[in-house]
């Protein structure tokens, strides 16, 4: 069986296994790259090793945990060997548990000998760097701070014009702060939490840039951040399956901290969205995040799905670039999704070009709305991505794939609007539905316009032959109400005209004007 | 851009356009075939031409409708030409409106000259034949009757051992019977409907095989049948997005007939599920179907999504076979879905083989349940089909793709169980959820067992290298409770054992016994 089919992907040309020897769990993630340069995760193994637990009197790794760790690494190595991933395609990294233990280096040497895996220990600085690489490639961050909170430490990276400028690390991880500042089997007192916040703020004060750099944009990485975001999404009953791009506000975080603190640690998993394995140690992390929000004055923490492992993969992948960042995250997300599913980009880009021309001269005062052209463009590129699932109902499948991908770089509202434009690009009456909870006033009209334009643009390219080179909307001369769609073409436009003429109903609903089609 | 990407598919090697010049609408459907021999619809154009309306005094096609029809055919021809579908890849057929009109042949000649499309007129017999080809390739029909009800006529085909044996046609279509027997702007009386049923039964009596051949299995084709099925699904609040495989029972049909009859024709679209364009003519069709159920004594009408166009495509596609039928519809459905999405069939078939071995010797009296091995086998072949969407949450994507495909040949209950086994093949606690409405007593345990076996089988082939050749479940010797999973292998099974051992929890829940893994 070819590699192509083995990964369920289209022409996989490269696979990379990133192995993360974390304090809590060990994980192996396979990233695949396709011949058309898409990338995605294609496999994962994980094991709760808890190497950072049961430490000896001087912080040594325990013999039992090391034995479990070695057994797990043997399985990971066997998996790579038998599934055809070579050693030079493996990145295996140890983080704080191994770095901080006096016998960490010795453990790594044993593990290298026993498994042949090219394990290296990441410095704090390297770890922060990979978090930055993840954040800057998976959000629209330009200037701000990236925070990564793990079990042991908190890293902050200042970002200016997409470059990492400053980096600090404090022992303010969720496990460490919960144990030190919030011990006990019962509810946690306001006083205990105030002491932790105070302590964190004192640390932050030692890096004066923290008070200014994160005011506009704070991006959060790590399991604790993702889990708190999930709980906030559940509390607000938002229609989101993923935390990608969600902004955790100070208010939502304060409410969660209250709910968590009033319960005993083992009861905290009852707060909807809080994971079982994380419930007992999450409060320390949440309080530290409150302190970060206070210190930076940020309006919230933008949460992403990616983390250290994606950062390592992307740093490799984008390596010739320094720093390893894509020129435009939104474009990269849209293109990656389109390529993963074999979208005909010549066709899709032509539809996007036609839609861009239409949106540039909309009939109506104050149109297009801010951001509207970019959303229409993305929807035009992705409207047919659902064809990879099935032709029947492919508009619904497109919406499913767009929502599932999360389109890093766009906000949840924007992703929902792009998905809905694709959803309504063929039929049905556009409606925000449950996505209204994510949207702003006027978004229902924006959706209506976007869907109407997309239907017209698609029909103009119905033949997939780029015969219609250009299209313009104009007020009909001598007729205040009517709008004429003028086409530039140099071939047979019978199918294009036939198709576009049939979109008049939705156009009239969106723009309050009847549409006629004319060849210029 | 290559054909591959143009169709959003994997290596499309052949495209066929089927153009159906129906009495109500004209439709062009593109079917694509992939290099791994999957097939699916990949495009569609349609236009409400209503060629069967406004007929002249002798039933002639009207000049206006013919002009509209010719314009539409010119668009279809231009679409084929510009999108690269050659004339020898086009099947264009006229049905009853053209066949029955005295100027139908003349219209076809004009249309051929004007468009170059290779239009031919289907005889009633041909039309019934293609309905049979659709039905026998999209259901598990062995012995029974295929019914196809259109606007003008009703065709019945007797099927014995999957062969078409008898065929009749009567002018009992939905439009014709509504106009003749159930005229009026108000509610329809029981007396009117009784007269229509009586008339239909008299016709059926002229073909004595109708009273016997359909007793066990009746398959229904046509828009009226599909629309009534949709309304019955809505009324029963069943979690079905498609009518594929749904059985419309006499009771559900009687209830719908009552609800439709008590409303004026233009109010009938208010019955949930009834389509606007069909509401005014559906009652005649529904009453004729009541008569078919009465005449045959069938327990219901199995409804399918496919019809004439699929029959024409499949008859071509399977042409060397006589009759053109696949050896096993269920196997063909599963394989088609797997191939459409590039499933690694060597890997998937190996997992299915391992799952088959496990299901053959389950610990527990009376196990496996009837039909269980076949469902587990299908789920094993399709569990990873969702990888085509994304690795993350691919178990959910597999369920989405399986439910969306409808898996012709399986019942809605079976499709739901296969989808749920795939849904729970990695994590989560298996539960029927809303699918319980489709299921039978004991199906929750069947799902639990299926998911548990699938998890084990997948782990045994976690490396995708077929190192585990065989697997058996055995009562542990000297221990009434325990079960041993014995493996036959001749390579490194460290990953397989590691993976299988981690599935003990669900196994214990499904079989009430702890699991240990041993190499034999």
From TrEMBL, chains A, B:
Keywords recorded for this protein, A-Z: Hydrolase
Keyword Transport: no
A Gene Ontology molecular function term of the record: pyrophosphatase activity
Highest taxon listed in the record's lineage: Bacteria
InterPro entries noted in UniProt: ATPase_NBD, GppA/Ppx_hydrolase, Ppx_GppA_C, Ppx_GppA_N, PyroPPase_GppA_Ppx
Domain annotation Ppx/GppA phosphatase N-terminal: ranges: 46-315
Family under the similarity heading: Belongs to the GppA/Ppx family.
Protein name, entry field: Ppx/GppA phosphatase
Phylogenetic lineage: Bacteria, Bacillati, Actinomycetota, Thermoleophilia, Solirubrobacterales
